Structure formats: C-alpha cells, structure tokens
Amino acid sequence: MGTSMQRRQPQATSGLITLQDDPTEGDEVEMYSGPSLPEDILCHIHSFMPMRDAARAACVSHAFLRSWRCHSNLNFSKETLGLNENACGKDAPGRVFYSKVDHILKKHSGIGLKKLKILIDSDYSAKDSHYLNNWLRTAVAPGIEELTLILVPFRAKYNFPCSLLSDGSGDSIQYLHLACCSFHPTVTLGGLRSLTRLHLCLVRITGDELVCFLTHSPALERLELRSCDKIVCLKVPRLLQRLNYLEVSGCAKLKVIENEAPNVSSFAIGGGNTVQLSLGETLQMKSLSMSRCGSIFYARAELPSSMPNLEALTVHSHTERAYAPMLRSKFPHLKRLSIALTGVSSPAYDYLSLASFFDAAPSLETIDLNVLQLYMKNVSVFADHADLRQMQEQEHHKLKSVRITGFSSAKSLVELTRHIHESITSLECLTLETPQSSLRCSDRCNKSGKCSPLVEDLLMEGHRAVLAIRRFIEPKVPSTVKLRVLEPCGCHAV
C-alpha cells in the first residue's frame, strides 16, 4: 500500500467539512493512494457516499480526491456541511455556509455533476444573489439531471436566472425543484426537453409564464404547484401527453384549472378557495385527492359519473353544508377511501350518511375516516340513545380494515360504526382512536415529563368516547373482527 507522509493533517472541526485548501497543493498532507481498483469503479463507489463522507474520503485518498472534483451528487445545507454554532465559532453559520459552498464548487471540475441541491435556511439577502448565480452557472451544464434550490426565508427576493437554461444548457435536466424565489421563463427560453418532474413551491410565477414553460417541456410526467400565489388561471396544454400526476395546493389567487393533458391519472387539489375545475378526459383517473369545503358532498354526487375508474379517493373538508346523498351511482373500482371532516368550523354532521360511500364502492379494501373535532357539536349518544338507526346490510367481499380517528360519542358516529361492523361481513379489523389518543402524549410532554394540559371539552369527550365504545359497540362486534381501541392517556384522569 503506497502512501506519502506529509506535514499537515486535513482540517476537521466538530464534523465540519472544510476542504479550504487543496490537499495536492502547497503544504503536504498524509494521503492514501487508494485501493487497486479501476478509477471508474472508484468513482462509482464514491458517488453513493453521503456528501460529508465523500468529502472526508477525498481528504485522505488521491483516488477519491480526483473523484471528488467530479462528484456527481452535491447536497449543500447546514446539516450536510456539519455547520453549527460551535463549528463556526464567531462567524455566523450563514456566512460560513456561503464560503464553504463557494469554495467546493470552485474546486469542482464541472464534469460529471448530475444532482445539485442547495438549501439556504437563514441569512439570505439580495447581495448574496451573485453567489447563487455563480453556483448555478457552474452546475447548469449538459449532463445535469436534478436541480433543487430551496430558500427557506419566505421573503427571499431571488430571481432565478432562467437564461442559464437556454441554448441547450438545461436539456438534460429531468427534475427541477424551486422554492421561495421568482421564476420568469420567457418564449426565448423555451423549456427543458428532458424534464419529467417540475416542483414549484412559494414561487413567484404567473399563469402565462408557466404555460409558456410547459409548452416547451413535452416530456413532463409530474407537475406539483404549492402556494404559488401569482397564478390565477392554470392551463395545462394538451401536448403534455406523458403527464400523469398533477398536484395544485395552497395557491391563494387561483380561480380556474383547465387541464387538456389527456393522460392525467392522479390529481390532487388543496386549498380553501373554490376553484373552477375543467379536467378534460377523466375516464383514466385512478387517484384523486381533494381538500376544500364541500368536497365530501361533491365527491359522492359528481365523481361516480365523471371518474368511474377511481381506485383511490381522499377527500378533506372543514365545512359541509349538505350530507352525503344516497344515490344509485357507483365507484366500481374504488379500493382505498379516506375521508377527513375536521376543524372547529364544521356544523353538526350526520356521520351515518357516509355509509352512502360504502354502498357505492363494492370493491373497497380499506377505509380511513378522520372526524377529529376540538368542540363537538353533534348530539351525544348519552343524551339520546333511543332508537339508534340501522341501515340495510351491504355486500362487501373485500373490505378488511376500517380506521376512525377522533372517535367521539356523537350519536350518528356510533350509528355509523355499528353499521360497519354489523353489516360488512368481510371486515377483519376495526380501529377506533379517541380524540385524546390522536394527540399523542409523547409528542406533548413538557420538561417535567408530564403531558401538557388539554382543552377541557376535548378531555371530557375522550372519556365519553371510550364509554360509548364499551356500552354501544364492543358488545356487538363479531368475534371475527379485531377491535382496537386507542384510549386516552392515563395522564388525563377525569
């Protein structure tokens, strides 16, 4: 094993990667020539190492040092660089971060870089734009496949240099993730020919700018937009033949979504505002997630006819003004159903009406129902337990598991639960999670080791829920069904 003994050791302080000096220049460092393997194999091994380990290996091995200068996967954040107050001394961690990243990228050859991720979580100001521009100028070259830039300071006024993506420089990019910056593509920029996934979060971009970009990105398969508040109208062009996943959430000013891409099979929309939807061809839709007011009624009344081939459905609503209707329409292929009716704004709701979904979906395998309320507005089964309603038995041969989170003593919820375990003969497991148990004590313990206080109404309702289970549900659960009850923590005695 050949080594050369040299006078200076590689710098390392509290796990901090320094690499401030080139180990092959100036003062001598103890280096290991490396194992007797072909260099391409060593580079391949090196590429799988976490970045901090890869950098440390480069400090002690000539072979890995050469590989480091064309390392394919660079992930820069305070965590990956090992930055903390102790390691940085008197310098602010943010300033040290810029210095380290700048040094590493200047030493990088620019060859072989496939993935670059930059996460800046503090100390960003407009004067730092030149750092980012230089880093991106180094990284955005033929061969780069994934580019992620996340500025955690929400008000960071950084304008992504779209010009770097022009003239074919970004044609190899397959994944682009931008957060908390401005992105203003123009007609002259075009798009990215190899781009398969675009993720924009808190990005300042208009609907016209986005459609311009999408029009020139024909390979796109996944489009994710979150909290992009300058988009009022989202138009997805028909030429995106490969697009199969579309997610739009938290875009406060969004009014209209017009999708013309013909092969979208998974669609997710979230946000409190009402958005006019035009989803085009929906017969191929397999998965749908909706989070907005009135989505439960809409899902039961409209979706069976417009999306009959759904296999997974998730609906979340804070307010429902009408109960789920009993209709003849069906979801013949629906296997997974998740319904969340949560929040303090929801009026008293007839949970038994949700049985309409069970009747409409003969292929259901799992049901997840979240009805957690901080203040219950429904009539308790203890206030009126006479004449508990029953519905006609339903034929389910595949439904095995039902979970209800935020189970309370609401009479209509007790009725729904009884209907589930009495009429669905294929059921194997029924899990009932009371309000207190959904607020895990282990997540809420204070320094004394005791749980933090709960809202009194929530505390009392948790214990009423357990009594309702013991009196009205448990005695009638068939022996073939496993009943799991997650009760309130013992810290909260009544």
Separation, N- and C-terminal Cα atoms: 72 Å
> In which range does the helix fraction lie?
10-25%
* Strand percentage: 15-25%
Structural class: alpha/beta
According to DSSP, the number of beta strands is: 22
Order of strands across the main sheet: 5-6-7-8-9-10-12-14-16-17-18-19-20-21-22
Q: Sheet bearing the most strands, described? A: 15 strands, parallel
**Mean pLDDT rating:** 82
Low-confidence stretches: 1-34
Cα shape:
elongated
Radius of gyration: 28 Å
**Helix run count:** 11
Structure, described:
It holds the Pfam family LRR_At1g61320_AtMIF1. InterPro entries: At1g61320/At1g61330-like, F-box-like_dom_sf, F-box_dom, LRR_At1g61320_AtMIF1, LRR_dom_sf. It comes from Urochloa decumbens. This is F-box domain-containing protein. With about 500 residues, the protein is an alpha/beta fold. Helices cover about 25% and strands about 20% of the residues. A 15-stranded parallel β-sheet has the order 5-6-7-8-9-10-12-14-16-17-18-19-20-21-22, covered by helices on one side. α11 links the parallel β21 (about 430-435) and β22. The protein is elongated and about 80 Å long. Mean pLDDT is about 80; it is low at about 1-35.
In brief, what are we looking at here?
The protein is α/β, with parallel strands linked by helices and about 500 residues long.
Any key phrases for this structure?
22 strands; disordered N terminus; 21% strand; three-stranded parallel beta sheet; alpha/beta; 494 residues
